[in-house]
Design brief:
- The complex is a heterodimer of chains A (354) and B (299).
- With 354 residues, chain A is α+β, with helices and mostly antiparallel strands.
- Chain A has helices spanning 42-50, 92-102, 107-120, 136-149, 166-183, 194-200, 218-223, 228-233, 266-269, and strands at 4-13, 16-26, 31-35, 57-62, 65-66, 77-80, 154-158, 186-191, 203-208, 211-216, 240-247, 252-255, 258-261, 274-277, 282-285, 293-302, 306-313, 316-323, 333-338, 344-346.
- Chain A contains 9 helices and 20 strands.
- Chain B contains 14 helices and no strands.
- In chain B, helix 4 crosses helix 9 (163-188), helix 9 (163-188) crosses helix 11 (205-234) and helix 13 (253-263) runs antiparallel to helix 14 (267-298).
- The radius of gyration of chain B is 24 Å and the shape is globular.
- The two termini of chain B are 32 Å apart.
- The chains are: A alpha+beta (354), B mainly alpha (299).
């Protein structure tokens, strides 16, 4: 195990700056998710840590060792790819044992360690098969086993669950979390799926256009998004973002054409040009109510344990989550009340105001 | 049986031109050569008008144990052919093609384009042009010797002193592009993540080639070797460089057959030689097919 330190990392492909100067400090044993939409530079960052891409500038260290320019094999990392990259002509046992074979470990030792790891990952009975004869989930475990078997210092995951179907993905996610807690690995996990990042990572690095938008624990990122990008990216459905205008003298805030008085939080709110409120932090009322935004119900989507309601308020389409398995009967006109203490304020530059 | 789109008579009508073509230019000559190989047919003279049935005389003459390995005889020619096929086909084209393909695998840019363009150019230029160019290149005062001169080396008359090596080099250069293209496209079907995984987990270049690329290329290698063996076995282009000489040193089997049948116009004996060549071709193809089938059964 080892810590990872990234300083001012830059990588350009042609005219596109894939990674635009990022800094990241990961203590030993931490599991970090790089989260962002496609093209945000998360995979490029991972590949630079693995040594598969050479940075234009910047420094990457593992432990206390500067490995920016080392060959991949000198970095002592293990990597799991999205397509698993199993060798089709080798058996599962040969696949798992390959990292040991290339390091010249003797045969008896290889067999012992491969059997150990395979049993741990519940694929011990498949060692004689070939990858094509395995299910997606079993292939994924094989790839994990191959990564674990030579006890690398750092584990790198490039969207390892995205080729699995929804049910298997949840299983594999729980299994990864368990494995990560058991083994206590230092790991970097690239994903575009926020629920994966939230569920697995000690900390999440949200990236966009080659830059880091925010680094924090899953709850920090959910509760205190550093800017509008993170606010809109995290949460499902994402946070409602509404333009706001404040009136200093009247101590009121106009949101979506509706003015309501702000006694608390006004100092903070008055500087905001956009306010954000999560769908789960709005209550929906069928009668006029103080501080309520009046709107028209657009659609109601019952999802089982919760109901998602979309409401037109002026120009905005606001989503509201109502928990419970009893979808509410709603008239056409409703009033939405945000929880003031859980509103988020963003300045004109999109940054959080706190 | 499933009913086709066309009724049977119409279907046969569409097939007819192909069948006629094959019958006239392939089946008929085959049987006529087969028949001719048991006669003493020649182009001119008594035997041209009234050929005699001679039984296996032509074959016996070809395989005559006393003369079999003499220069200009069939055994000698087959030995030269083996050298030529192994040297320029198997080692030259297949290995060189594989080497270039692996070297340029996953690379982009000028070098790759240049190598590919040159190799393909060497492959598609007409025989006569290529032969003339190589003749000029290998001549005593040709390009190669002039290049060597600038290094202070006096080059020999290549086609005269080292005729077999010359045609092996020539044919390697001429045909490596095919293997290169076949192997490059086979390589491009291997996901890059397989090699990247190997990089990360510590495999050396040689280990990656031996453990990951080579096993997945094997079926392509077999196909390539089959085609190249047959093509090299039957190629006639060396004739344009050496005419089979000097003193039969490059008298490979295609040139031998031509010489017997069409230069001396002993059609009977030439037909027998052609039959032998065809049987050898069939044997080579059968061996490759057997090997590739047994691989498929195992897999």
């Amino acid at each position: 195990m080892a810590s990872i330190k990234i300083q001012k990392l830059v990588k350009t492909f042609g005219t596109v700056q894939a990674v635009a100067g990022i800094d990241l400090d990961m203590p030993d044993g931490e599991f970090v998710a790089l989260l962002g939409p496609s093209g945000c530079g998360k995979t490029t960052t991972l590949r630079m840590i693995a040594g598969l891409e050479v940075p234009d500038s910047g420094v990457i260290s593992i432990g206390d060792q500067d490995i920016t320019m080392s060959q991949p094999r000198d970095r002592d990392v293990a990597m799991v790819f999205q397509d698993y990259a199993l060798y089709p002509h080798m058996t599962i046992g040969e696949n798992i044992g390959y990292p040991l074979k290339v390091r010249g470990v003797n045969k008896a030792e290889i067999i012992r360690r491969v059997t150990d790891v395979a049993n741990q990952l519940q694929i011990g009975h498949l060692l004689e098969r070939r990858p094509a004869q395995l299910s997606g989930g079993q292939q994924q475990r094989t790839a994990l086993a191959r990564a674990v078997v030579h006890r690398a210092r750092v584990f790198l995951f490039d969207e390892p669950l995205s080729n699995l179907d929804a049910k298997l993905r949840l299983e594999a996610r729980a299994f990864l979390k368990y494995l990560q807690r058991e083994v206590g690995v230092t790991g970097v996990y690239v994903t575009h799926d926020q629920s994966e990042a939230m569920a697995l990572a000690d900390r999440i690095v949200v990236m966009s256009a080659g830059k880091i938008m925010q680094v924090g624990t899953p709850l920090e990122i959910y509760r205190q998004p550093a800017n509008q990008f993170v606010a809109a990216f995290i949460g499902s459905p994402p946070m409602n973002l509404l333009a706001a205008v404040s009136d200093e003298a009247a101590r009121t805030l106009s949101i979506a054409g509706h003015t309501f008085p702000m006694r608390e939080n006004f100092a903070q709110a008055s500087k905001a040009s956009v306010i954000g409120v999560r769908p789960e932090h709005l209550t929906i009322h069928t009668q006029p109510v103080e501080n309520g935004l009046v709107g028209k119900v657009y659609v109601t989507q019952p999802l089982g344990g919760e109901t998602l309601i979309l409401v037109h308020v002026g120009e905005n389409l606001i989503s509201v989550r109502v928990f419970g398995d009893d979808p509410p009967e709603l008239p056409e006109q409703v009033w939405l009340v945000p929880e003031l203490s859980r509103m988020h304020y963003f300045g004109e530059d999109g940054e959080r105001i706190s | 049986m499933q009913r086709g789109m066309l009724s049977r008579p119409v279907g046969l009508l569409f097939l007819a031109p192909a069948i006629v073509f094959i019958a006239v230019f392939l089946v008929y000559p085959f049987f006529s050569i087969f028949q001719m190989s048991f006669t003493n047919t020649t182009l001119v003279g008594v035997n041209a008008v009234n050929p005699q049935f001679v039984g296996f005389d032509n074959y016996v003459a070809l395989f005559n144990a006393d003369q079999w390995m003499r220069r200009g005889e069939m055994g000698f020619s087959l030995l030269l052919t083996a050298q030529f096929v192994i040297g320029s086909g198997l080692i030259g084209q297949a290995v060189l093609g594989l080497f270039i393909a692996v070297l340029l695998h996953n690379r982009r840019g000028f070098t790759r384009e240049l190598v590919f363009t040159l190799a393909i150019a060497a492959w598609i230029i007409p025989d006569v042009v290529v032969a003339f160019a190589w003749f000029a290149y290998l001549a005593p005062d040709g390009t190669l010797n002039n290049l060597l001169n600038t290094l202070g080396i006096a080059g020999p008359d290549w086609l005269f002193k080292h005729p077999m090596i010359s045609i092996i080099f020539f044919n390697t250069w001429r045909g490596a592009a095919f293997s290169m293209l076949l192997f490059s496209s086979a390589l491009s079907s291997i996901p890059p993540s397989q090699l990247e995984t190997a990089d990360v987990l510590g495999a050396s270049g040689w280990q990656k080639f031996r453990d990951i690329l080579l096993p997945q290329l094997t079926p392509y290698i077999l196909t390539d070797l089959l085609l190249i063996t047959l093509w090299t076995f039957n190629t006639f282009t060396p004739f344009l460089l050496t005419g089979g000489g000097p003193s039969y040193q490059t008298d490979v089997i295609s040139i031998f057959t031509y010489r017997i049948g069409l230069r001396f116009f002993e059609f009977g004996k030439g037909s027998a030689a052609a039959m032998v060549v065809m049987i050898i071709n069939l044997a080579i193809a059968s061996i490759y097919l057997l090997v590739s089938r047994s691989r498929k059964v195992r897999a």
